[in-house]
Amino acid sequence: MAVAEFSASRTESWFLTSQFSLSSSSTRFYNHRRIELRAPSRARNAKVLCSIAPSQVQAPVTPQVNEANKNDCYGVFCLTYDLRAEEETKSWKSLIKVAVSGAAGMISNHLLFKLASGEVFGPDQPIALKLLGSERSFQALEGVAMELEDSLYPLLREVSISIDPYEVFQDVEWALLIGAKPRGPGMERAGLLDINGQIFAEQGKALNAVASLNVKVIVVGNPCNTNALICLKNAPNIPARNFHALTRLDENRAKCQLALKAGVFYDKVSNMTIWGNHSTTQVPDFLNARINGIPVKEVIKDTDWLKKEFTEKVQKRGGVLIKKWGRSSAASTAVSIVDAIKSLVTPTPKDDWFSSGVYTNGNPYGIAEDIVFSMPCRSDGNGDYELAKDVIIDDFLRERIKKSEAELLAEKRCVAHLTGEGNAFCDLPEDTMLPGEQ
Asked: Which of 233, 231, 283, 243 is nearest to 406 (CA)?
């Protein structure tokens, strides 16, 4: 996804509007429905806004097609409804607005339908999906919107698509930043940091300008830790603690490997932490993890396996999957994004925690401040989190944490020009991109 693709020109547009009618004095009706469409010849700059259903359930009569516009739109975008109440309305929560970048990609193809179904935010939470793509992917975005409307999700009230982050991020309460340029042949990690860093700097500025001031941001595009740092540095009006780098897939993979080794189902594994960077310096923590509430080291006696093979299996899982299937782990990544959101909007079970890459300022573990580092978190279910207490860090774990810390500090120096901290200086010690993500 080229950086230039995020700069959309402003072009003329026209509007199709309709007013829901009132037919009973005993029932409250609304609302004004606006559908914005742009000329097909300028589709690359288009924004489509669809209100799939009103915020209260009402009985529709036969939809009427607006003949004047039927050649310029498709499906539900072309319909005008006259809604008539015939039964008591059902109450819903207030609409929540969720932005997704890279919305035409494989990960989003799994994620969007989970969001629209109610699996993530709950069965009584209406949702508006605001999808960000590029000029190159705009037609695919239209296809995504068509599939979403064909799925008839009752909770999905609006779908909009655009290549302009300032349009997509308007008033959003969640921003899931998936889109990023993949690493090409011969590209150095420093080059990838710079190219993708420019994307996330621009998106941070857009979020700062138009998103809800309490927006929660989950950065998936790699290198996600440093991209999250760049994004938050360019969004000074948004609390830094609201930014997360996705390390939940690493946690899920680690739980799976421990379960396999112990011969238990993975729901018996708790307190699993991924420390550090989403790279080969990441630290799957077996010291604090538990199986059936018992420390892992008391269940799995093979210390050599825990110290070496366990970590390698977690790190190389993505590469092995590509060799087996010929594609990256899009579906399980989407599931891990769902898990990450649900961990923030539902209370964390007692005596457990989850992993997330978060801002280190004020952390109790002695980790360097002003980087985004994966650490153990707990939530009351209000979208916020606190860092877990009663965490054990021995010399072996501390040494490995320090290595990941050093790498993230080096990455930070590489992108100083994007975080407002002066000239960039790259001294990355080695290539640590995870297998399967190159």
From this structure: 283
